[in-house]
Amino acid sequence: MLDKLDIPHLQHIISACPIGILLQDSHGRISWTNDALVQMLGETRRDQLLNKRADELPEPLSDLLNLDTTLHLAGENAEDDRWLIGQQQPLPDEQGTVHYFIDITPWHGLIQERDQLKSELNDIIMVDSETGMRNRKGLYYSLEPQLSRSRRYDRPLSVIILRLDCLERFKQHYQRDDALPLLITTSRLLSDQLRWADIAGRLSENDFLLVLPETHAEDANKVVDNLRKQIDALTIPDLEPADFAITARFGVAEWRKGDDMGLLLMRARKMLNDDPGPGKGLGTRD
C-alpha cells in the first residue's frame, strides 16, 4: 500500500488521467500533453502542439489555450466530431500554466438529440401549453375539414377572431411578467359559451379563433354581442384588486365560394382591425 507518491507514480497517474492535460511553460510554449488529450485530439495533432505558442497553432487548436471555451474538433466524418471544454490554472512561481480538458462529446450528442426531439414534438403538438385549447396548428388542422365541407355541400360557416387588447395593461396593472390568469379566464369563457360543434383555440399571443359551422355572419355577430357582454362582466379569480376592465375586439367573416383558409381569416382580421372596441384607455372599472 502506498502511503507516499513518488515522482514516477505521479507521472504515471497524470499521464493516464482520463482528463486531458496540457502544460504551457513560462514562455507560453506547450511543453507536454498527456495521453488522454492526444486521444481526444488525435495522434497527428501532437506534433502540431509541442513547442508551439498560441499564435503559432493552426485553427481550431489555437482555441485550446483560451480559458473556459468549448472547442469543436471536426473529424473526417460527422460521427468523429469532438467537443471539448477547457479550464486553466497557473502554476506556482509563474512557472507556466496547466490546462485541463474534458471530452463532452457524449453530452453534446444527447443535447442535440433532445433538441431534435423537442423540435419534432412541437411540430406534432396541437394544444396550447398555457390555456389547454387548440393552438394555431390545431386550429388550422380542425378548420380545413370544415372549409371542405362548406365547399362540397355549400353550407354556411363563420369564424370569429377575438383579440384581447388589454394584455400589456394587465401585466402593468398587476405587475406581472405574464398574462396567464387573463388568458385562462378567457379560454374558459369561450369553452362555456360555444356549442358542441364549435371549435375554439388560441391563434396567437392575444388572439383567439372561433370556428362556427352551420352559422351565417348574422348569427356569428349575435355570438359576438353575447361575448362582449360576458367579457364586460368578467372578473379574474384570485387577483386583487378586482377592478381591472377586460377589453376585447372582434372580427367576423363568413365563408364565401372560392374562399380558402387564408382568404377567410384575412377578412376576419380586416373586420377585427375596423372594430373600435368597447372603449380606449380603460384600466379600471368605474
Topology:
Blueprint: H1 7-16, E1 20-25, E2 30-33, H2 35-41, H3 46-49, E3 70-73, E4 82-90, E5 96-103, H4 105-124, H5 136-153, E6 157-164, H6 167-174, H7 180-193, E7 199-202, E8 207-213, H8 217-232, E9 248-254, H9 261-274
Antiparallel strand pairs: 1-2, 1-5, 3-4, 4-5, 6-8, 6-9, 7-8
Structural write-up:
The chain is of the alpha+beta class. Helix content is 39%, strand content 20%. The protein has 9 helices and 9 strands. The strands form 2 sheets. Strands 2-1-5-4-3 form a 5-stranded antiparallel sheet. The radius of gyration is 32 Å and the shape is elongated. The protein folds into 2 domains: 7-109, PAS domain (Beta-Lactamase), CATH 3.30.450.20; 126-274, Reverse transcriptase/Diguanylate cyclase domain (Alpha-Beta Plaits), CATH 3.30.70.
CATH topology description of the largest domain: Alpha-Beta Plaits
Number of helices: 9
Under CATH at level 1, the class of the largest domain stands as: Alpha Beta
Bin the strand percentage.
Answer: 15-25%
Number of domains: 2
Spatial order of strands in the largest sheet: 2-1-5-4-3
Uncertain parts: 279-286
Radius of gyration: 32 Å
Straight-line distance between termini: 85 Å
CATH homologous superfamily descriptor of the largest domain: Reverse transcriptase/Diguanylate cyclase domain
Spell the H/E element sequence. HEEHHEEEHHEHHEEHEH
